[in-house]
Amino acid sequence: MKEIDVSREAKRIAFFLKETFERAGFSQAVIGVSGGVDSAVSLALTVKALGENNVFPILMPYGVLNTQGVLDAMEAINQLHIPLTHVVRIDIKPAVDVIVGKEMLGMDNVRKGKRNALVVGTENKTEHVLGYFTRYGDSASDIEPFAHLYKTQVVELAKHLQIPQSILEKPPTAGLWPEQTDEKDFGFSYKDADHILSLLYDEKKTIEEVVGVGFDRTLVEKIQTRVSKNSFKHTTPYKISPSPLVVLIDSSTGGELKDNVG
C-alpha cells in the first residue's frame, strides 16, 4: 500500500475543504464526533480549514453505552479550542424525547449557524469499500475529507495532527454494544484489510497474486466476498427504466392517443 506524506496530505485536505466551502458559498461546518479517530481527524482538518469558531461538533451518545467516547470527543474538541457553546450533545436513546422534548432546545446553537453550514463526513476508504457504513446514516454528508485514504493511513494522519493519545490507542468501534469493535465484526484487522484491498482494487491484482504476496487465501477471499456482498451500497437507489412509449390509436375515442400501459 502506498505511503502518504502526512504533512503534505493534511495541508492538501485542509486546502480542499477551504476551497470547497468557499466555492459552495458556505463558511461553517457541522461534524458528528464520536470519540473515534476518523471523526477526530475530520474535526482537526476542518478546524485547520475554517477556524475553530466556524465548526459545530455534534455528540450523539446512546445513553451511557459510549461514555468514554464522549470524554474522548470532548478532549479532541477542547484541544482544538472549539467554543463549548458550539458543542451540541444529544442522547439518541430516548428518541421520542429528542424529537419533541427539551433536548431539542440544545440544537439552538446549531440552528443559528447551520443555514450557512455543510455537514463534513468521517468516512475512510476501507469502510467505504467494505460497505461498513449505513446508507443515509453515517455516510450522509456534504463533503468527505479523506474518503480516498485507507484506515491505517488515516491513523498516520491522526498522529501527525496530534490527535489525543486516548483516541489513538483504543480499538476502532461503531459503539453498537459494549465491547464491540470493528475488527471483531470483520474477523480480520484493518492492517490486513488495507493491504489486501489496495492490492485487489488499486493495483488490480488477482487473488492468486495476492496470495503469492503472502496472505492466506481464506482471508483474501473473505475480504473480497464482503466487498462484493456490500457493493449494492455504492449504487443509487434501484430505479425502473422508463418504458418506451408505444403509441396506439384508439378508434373508439375518435383517434385519441393512449400509451401501452393497461
From TrEMBL:
Q: Which keywords has UniProt assigned to this entry?
A: ATP-binding, Ligase, NAD, Nucleotide-binding
Enumerate the catalysed reactions: deamido-NAD(+) + NH4(+) + ATP = AMP + diphosphate + NAD(+) + H(+)
Q: What class of enzyme is it?
A: ligase
> Which biological process, per GO, is one annotated for this protein?
NAD+ biosynthetic process
Q: What's the EC number here?
A: 6.3.1.5
What does the entry list under GO cellular component? cytoplasm
User: What is an example of a GO molecular function annotated in this UniProt entry?
Assistant: NAD+ synthase (glutamine-hydrolyzing) activity
Q: Where are the transmembrane segments?
A: none
Pfam families tied to this protein: NAD_synthase
Which parts of the sequence belong to the NAD/GMP synthase domain? 11-237
> Which pathway?
Cofactor biosynthesis; NAD(+) biosynthesis
Similarity comment:
Belongs to the NAD synthetase family.
Output this protein's name. Answer: NH(3)-dependent NAD(+) synthetase
Question: What phylogenetic lineage does the species belong to?
Answer: Bacteria, Candidatus Gottesmaniibacteriota
